[in-house]
Structure formats: structure tokens, C-alpha cells
Fold:
Amino acid sequence: MDNKRRDFLKKSALLGLAGLATNLVGEEKINALNKLTSDGGKYSLPKLPYAYNALEPFIDEQTMQIHHTKHHQAYVDKLNKALETYNGDQSFEGLFSKASKIDPALRNNGGGHYNHSLFWQLMKANPTGEANLPAGKLENAIIAEFNTFEIFKKEFTEKATKVFGSGWCWLIEAKGKLKIVTTSNQDNPLMDCVSDKGKPILCLDVWEHAYYLKYQNKRADYIAGWWNVINWQQAESQYTAE
Ligand code: MN3
Structure:
């Protein structure tokens, strides 16, 4: 592996995107990662690591299909469009480090593409609603910071419920500590413009488009359902990534 590629893979892990290609191998994996650099190319919509109906009954098929093929696709398209006239570093890292200064179209759609790419990876099927809990180092870190998983779950749920308007709720690591933070619109904790910066470990989309078809105005019910389909193994990968 040459240095440039290794450096990119390391940066991808930092930005939480290495996991996008975990189900791919060899050249296919490299190609999938390269598409995310926008290095002379374009960003593209990543495939979901499961079927549109896989998150039923907690997140419905129609919502997943529209969310992925319409909303996420629109962020990708608008990001590529905005990048046509941008001469700076087009990587996520480059864009997010200057989020407060660049064209809002780059900030909003770059954030939209990154946040959704991560969000899809952080969910998995759990049709019968079996107990779904973190394990390993992430479990230990959650217990160390919040005392119990239930306290963590309660605090995350409260913060996600209270996001005013459209935004996201995150579990991040900053300076070796776990923290629950929220962002507006498509901002994320990697952007220079947010007050609580850190490495994303877990994220939840609380825009109405993420739940309205099934849950209408009942965001709390959507959040309660989401706890069943969190991919804790992927969250652990986020947490342990350098
Ligand atoms: Mn969304």
C-alpha cells in the first residue's frame, strides 16, 4: 500500500467513513473509498448495507427508500454541483475545517452527505427487537462516563427529542471523554462552526423526513424505535478508529 493511499485510509477512518466499504474487498473496496475523496472526481451515493425494509418494524421501508434515494441523493448532487466552482480542498476534512467560511451549499450538502453515509452504517436489522446493547471498549467508556447504559440512553433520548427544528444528535469523543451533543441542519461535530467538536461515534437524524411517514409528529416514538436498530459493532469501530 503506498503512502498516499494509507494516508487516505487513515483519514477516512478518522472521519468515520472507513466503514462504508467494510463489506467490500480488494480493488472494489479501494474504488469505493476513492469515490469519497472527490479527488478530481465526484461524490456518489453509497449503497445501504441492508435492504430498504431491513429496519422494519422500527423504521419503515418507504421512509428508508425516500430518505436514501431522494434526500441523500439530493445532498450528493448539490454537493457535486457546488464543488464545480470550488477551488479548495474538496475532501470532507477540507470542507468541514472551513465550514464557517465556505459557500453554505458546500457546508449543508457536504454535511448532508457525510452525516447520512455515517447514519446508514450505524444501523442494522433487528426485526424481533432483541436486546441491543453496546459491548467491549465502547460499553466500558459509556459506563465510565454515564454510570449506566440506561442513564446514557435517557440523556441521549432527551437531547435528541429537544432538537428544535431539523438537526442531529451525536455521541462524540472529545479529549478522551464521551459527550452527547446536538447540531442544527446538516452541521456535524467535525465542523469548525460547531461549539462541541469531536469524533462522531453514533448519530441520529431527527429531521422530520427521517420519521414523518410512519410516526408523523411523534419524534419520541421514532427515537424509541431507533434504539433497537443501532449497529453497536459499527459504533465500536468508530470509537476505536484512530
Ligand atoms: Mn436525513
Remarks:
- Residues 136-240 form a domain with the minor pseudopilin epsh fold fold (CATH 3.55.40.20).
